[in-house]
Design brief:
The chain has 6 helices and no strands. It has 128 residues and is an all-alpha fold.
């Protein structure tokens, strides 16, 4: 009887992450582990949703061209260099923008594109 309880405990421990939707680090594909290496230490503490979002991000990252990856690294570096107050303002602006109706977002995108094109015509001042 004690053996049955022990085997049951082992089975539950082994199957619990799979049953909850969690993925163990060693179950990830080698390419995923390479991209997600920074998350390895805390991987088992992440929720299944967090793990899935990270895996989707890793997939998108692998699909980027080297130039796109470099631009992403530069953007991350700029973000990390921002003071905390400015990061918070950017997050608030992003939340505000996401709350807008789609037609208003489209109007703003068109306005920003026009403004950016105008700056480029001035010799590259401003813009992205």
């Amino acid at each position: 009887m004690k053996w049955r309880a022990a085997w049951l405990a082992v089975a539950v421990a082994v199957c619990a992450p799979a049953a909850s939707g969690q993925i163990r680090w060693n179950e990830l594909a080698p390419g995923e582990r390479q991209v997600l290496g920074g998350a390895q230490q805390r991987w088992d503490q992440l929720s299944p949703d967090q793990q899935q979002r990270l895996r989707q991000g890793a997939q998108r990252w692998r699909q980027l061209s080297p130039e796109q990856r470099e631009k992403a690294r530069e953007g991350l570096s700029r973000w990390q260099d921002l003071p905390p107050e400015q990061r918070e303002r950017v997050k608030q602006q992003k939340d505000w923008y996401r709350s807008l109706p789609d037609d208003r977002k489209q109007q703003l995108r068109e306005h920003w594109q026009g403004a950016t094109q105008g700056r480029k015509g001035e010799g590259g001042k401003g813009g992205r």
